[in-house]
Write a structure and sequence with these properties.
The complex is a heterodimer of chains A (506) and B (187). Chain A has 506 residues and is mainly alpha-helical. Chain A has one domain: Formate dehydrogenase/DMSO reductase domain (Formate dehydrogenase/DMSO reductase fold). Chain A has helices at 2-17, 45-57, 62-88, 103-127, 137-157, 184-217, 221-230, 238-271, 283-309, 318-349, 352-363, 367-379, 387-390, 393-420, 435-458, 464-469, 490-493, 499-505. The radius of gyration of chain A is 25 Å and the shape is globular. By secondary structure, chain B is an alpha+beta fold. Chain B folds into two domains: 2-42 and 149-186, Alpha-Beta Plaits (2-Layer Sandwich); 59-125, no CATH class. In chain B, 46% of the residues lie in helices and 20% in strands. Chain B has helices at 19-31, 48-51, 59-85, 98-125, 139-142, 162-171, and strands spanning 2-16, 37-40, 149-154, 175-186. Chain B has a four-stranded antiparallel sheet. The radius of gyration of chain B is 25 Å and the shape is elongated. The termini of chain B are close together. In chain B, 42% of the residues are buried. The chains are: A mainly alpha (506), B alpha+beta (187). Chains A and B meet through helix 2, helix 6, helix 8 and helix 16 of A and helix 1, strand 2, helix 3 and helix 4 of B.
């Protein structure tokens, strides 16, 4: 380990001398305790372009095609099951008169929740000037968009007659009917479609300058044409950056309350009803925290894989993983607190129906699902109190999958347990999904992977311009007052990396 | 596709390799009274637009207008459809009330603000898409999307002469000061 660290210092120093003067900027003599750098390997601005554009420019490997093919097959199975559902009707699902929402809405809430991490990273962390976000925001935003597409698959199919889904929108029609704005389901139509549109615009806005970088390097005619069209003719003009930066800030400012509103409104689908187990005021913050929790877990799951396959160790460092794990720990505890508070309020309300539902949730027919949720969401993140485990790539990967599973079970638990034993014992029922629902759900993972693989192959997976702008010396030195914090004077101290970072690289 | 260089001079360009020097240069060019010049950078450099003497962006005004439009439409839509056009009693709930209107007020406001900002910023303020730039054959200009800070003094500027422009950029420490000619594409 020590040997490797020495090697790293050696290459880093070599890189320094032939680098541009950009890196020489932190020439203050004070060698204070330093922060970890955001990008390892002492890179020049040009190297960053080479590294990140290189990912998109290299020839697709057989591994990539194999992964893409596998994902297409899985997605295809899902689309088959979806087609079958639409052709025959949602009677092919396991729903019954008592349980009208099953895997469809569980999966809808699950996928919408996954999207929240992307917006949180791109918008909230931007407003808080968290520079580490630049390594992960692009792919997390992409995941948001793909996740919302998957969510739409479920919510648009569960209407039963998806070819009439345009009825969800208020438009003048020959029936002289209008949508019911008093229904939270209608609020959801507006929330989710706004969320999708704004996320897409935000993502595309971020992509434009990076696509211009790819355009100027493109070798083949097809790549050149594609990148040219979508980069809109971006040149990097300061007269353009000026407006661009402001637009980016407005998008971040819009997305921050938007991301909170979306899952709040999704939770209204439940909370505004009068069903014990759903009718609780804690739902909006509880759902938002859960969404961020699950979203970060999903971002980690995919990013850790992408980091290995595409060799992005210098950009997605252990510091990023550590930071994300801290957010998982924090949101995991908010979720855990919400579970406890729900139980307490059910007891404290004195309402027998409320009490019954929660007792039944923990010890009834679906107890297995409840305890699965508690184990994955409340107990498993506690390991992240340990700094070593937060920086352990394999541990993080496994735990992120646990969190994904736990958060899926949370939604399933909330939906099924509240519905299956309602006010009328004569209509109590149990719900099990059929192969159709299961296939559609698995299929959406395939679809997600198809989108993600294509994105990772053909688009800049790391926000090129943004990473460049946070490099040491990238900004004029009189601007140090707003640069403090995230990068210190590590170039002068030699503490450019922690030894375990180096270890993970090899 | 072949390209032929024509005689017309369109600009004098110079390169910089770091943000401090290019910011100082921007101040110098602005002080010299140039108005038609631009600096092409790989990422937004803080304070460069101020050094160039650019006015504040008018984008926030558009954003506000978009937001207010969205809010007003959301109000009109819910009030008119529910309270006037299609009065449907649902569980005795009021036909219109601002409380249940809040989610749609908010969402349409955000949606309209976002769309306005997107199209105003790219389409109106930055005049994009524009798939051709007359400078695009210059290697230093192209490298601005990589790691070059390329200063362009445009020939349209009333103060522009080849000699003074070159002298100014040289004085301000630019590398590779060059006269750029118009390029015509020929098949």
């Amino acid at each position: 380990m020590a040997m490797e660290a020495k090697e790293q210092v050696a290459t880093a120093t070599a890189g320094y001398s032939n680098g541009t003067t950009l890196n020489g900027y932190h020439d203050s003599p004070s060698a204070k305790p330093v922060r970890e750098p955001l990008v390892l390997g002492n890179k020049t601005i040009h190297q960053i372009t080479e590294d990140i554009c290189g990912v998109a420019e290299q020839k697709a490997t057989p591994k990539f095609w194999a992964a893409l093919l596998a994902s297409i097959l899985v997605a295809g199975a899902g689309i088959g099951a979806l087609t079958y559902t639409i052709a025959v009707g949602i009677g092919v699902w396991g729903l019954n008169n008592t349980i009208g929402w099953g895997w469809d809405i569980t999966n809808f809430v699950f996928w919408v929740g996954i999207g929240h991490a992307g917006t949180l990273i791109s918008a909230v962390l931007f407003l808080f000037r968290q520079k580490w976000r630049t390594a992960i925001n692009r792919s997390a935003e992409a995941m948001t968009i793909f996740a919302v597409i998957n969510a739409a698959v479920f919510v648009l199919t569960h209407t039963g007659r998806p070819w009439l889904d345009y009825w969800l929108l208020p438009y003048p029609n020959q029936m002289k009917m209008w949508v019911n704005f008093r229904s939270p389901l209608e609020w959801d139509v507006f929330a989710v479609s706004t969320y999708f549109t704004i996320s897409l615009l935000f993502w595309f806005t971020g992509l434009v300058p990076d696509l211009a970088s790819l355009r100027n390097r493109a070798k083949t005619k097809l790549a050149k044409a594609g990148y040219t069209v979508f980069s809109l003719g971006w040149t990097g003009s300061t007269r353009n950056w000026h407006h661009y930066e402001f637009a980016y800030m407005i998008f971040a400012g819009l997305s921050t309350p938007l991301v909170l509103s979306v899952h709040s409104i999704v939770s209204f689908d439940f909370a505004v009803s009068i069903l014990p187990g759903w009718h609780t005021t804690i739902f909006p913050p509880y759902f938002v925290a859960g969404a961020i929790f699950s979203g970060f877990a999903m971002v980690l799951t995919l990013m850790l894989v992408a980091r290995e396959i595409l060799d992005l160790h210098d950009y997605i460092t252990l510091k990023h993983i550590d930071n994300m794990n801290k957010i998982i720990l924090a949101t995991g505890m908010i979720v855990g607190y919400a579970y406890a508070m729900e139980m307490f309020i059910a007891y404290y309300s004195g309402n027998p129906y409320e009490r019954f539902v929660f007792f039944n949730r923990a010890f009834g027919d679906y107890a297995w699902s409840y305890w699965m949720m508690v184990t994955c969401n409340v107990i498993s993140p506690q390991f992240f109190w340990n700094a070593k485990l937060r920086r352990n790539v394999w541990f993080t990967f496994v735990l992120s999958i646990f969190v994904n599973i736990g958060m899926w079970f949370e939604r399933f638990t909330i939906i099924s347990t509240s519905l299956h034993h309602g006010y009328l014992p004569s209509s109590w029922h149990y719900y099990t999904p059929t192969w159709v629902e299961i296939t559609i759900f698995i299929g959406t993972f395939g679809l997600f992977m198809v989108f993600f693989l294509l994105f990772a192959k053909y688009l800049p997976i790391i926000a090129l311009g943004e990473v460049k702008s946070i490099m040491p010396g990238a900004q004029p030195s009189h601007h140090h007052h707003d640069d403090h914090g995230e990068h210190g004077d590590y170039y002068n101290t030699g503490h450019y990396a922690e030894s375990n970072d180096v270890q993970a690289k090899h | 596709m072949t390209t032929v260089e024509k005689g017309n001079v369109i600009a004098v360009m110079g390169d910089y390799k770091n943000a401090d020097k290019v910011t100082a240069a921007a101040k110098g060019i602005h002080a010299a009274g140039y108005t038609k010049f631009d600096i092409y950078t790989p990422y937004p450099v803080h304070g460069l637009e101020k050094a160039m003497g650019m006015p504040k962006t008018s984008l926030p005004k558009f954003a506000l207008a978009g937001g207010l439009f969205g809010l007003a439409s959301a109000f009109a839509l819910q009030y008119w459809t529910g309270g006037i056009e299609y009065k449907l009693n649902i569980g005795g709930k009021p036909l219109f009330a601002p409380q249940f209107g809040v989610p749609v007020f908010f969402e349409l406001m955000v949606l309209c603000t976002g769309l306005t900002v997107f199209f105003t910023m790219f389409g109106y303020l930055n005049r994009l898409p524009n798939w051709h730039s007359k400078y695009q054959y210059d290697a230093g200009f192209q490298a601005a999307t990589d790691d070059n800070f390329c200063v362009v003094l445009e020939a349209d500027d009333p103060r522009f002469t080849i000699e003074t422009a070159q002298a100014l950029l040289t004085k301000l420490g630019a590398d590779n000061v060059r006269v750029v000619h118009e390029t015509i594409e020929q098949d």
